[in-house]
Amino acid sequence: MASKDRIQKLKEDTRLNILSASLDIAKEEGWAALSMRKIADKIDYTAPVIYEYFANKDAILRELTRIGYVKLATRMEEACKLSTTPEGQLEAMWLAYWNFAFAYKELYQVMYGVEMNCCTALNECPDYSKPMNMLWDKIEEITPPERRNEEYIDRKYYTFWSVVHGLISINLTNQLSREEINREVLRDAITGVINSIKN
């Protein structure tokens, strides 16, 4: 490997180590405990080295938020392939959204501000809107032509999101019921909204 390539790989490895250490701290102590000094201590670097890669803690949170949206979109794309009908695809994508929230709890928290302040400047993140657009497009696809307008589809998207995100938030902050009951409530809610669109 050429010297230039080695240096670039070392830089990318260091950047990834910083992000990984940030997630580890969040898992162990919560997002409120995250600081540049703690990250530096975790990976045995000095704080100035961390600042070479990220200007501040918000920059780290923004990058983790971007990574979260990329992972979420990938999972939703994979889930969409599990069904041949638009209704089945929409349900599969919302279930993938649900599963993502619990598989990547800390990323979901930073993406949506669960038990913490939401990451700022989300509109600057081009990956932010991809999962929402995928769901929006699928809702548009199942909406009868006579009701197919932006206001109606927006309303149905936010109806879905309010129910799914609300149930996730309740469970991330305070486990109130068993997993199987949560899944039944989730499926009932998704099916109910889909039926309200089609009928």
Automatic annotation (TrEMBL):
DNA-binding stretch(es), residue numbering of this chain: 35-54
InterPro entries listed in its UniProt record: Homeodomain-like_sf, HTH-type_Tx_Regulator, HTH_TetR, MT1864/Rv1816-like_C, Tet_transcr_reg_TetR-rel_C_sf
Matches recorded under PROSITE patterns: HTH_TETR_2 (PS50977)
Keyword Oxidoreductase part of the UniProt annotation: no
Keywords, alphabetical: DNA-binding, Transcription, Transcription regulation
Any GO MF annotation of the entry: DNA binding
SUPFAM superfamilies: Homeodomain-like, Tetracyclin repressor-like, C-terminal domain
Keyword match Ribonucleoprotein: no
Domain HTH tetR-type: 12-72
Protein's recorded name: DNA-binding transcriptional regulator, AcrR family
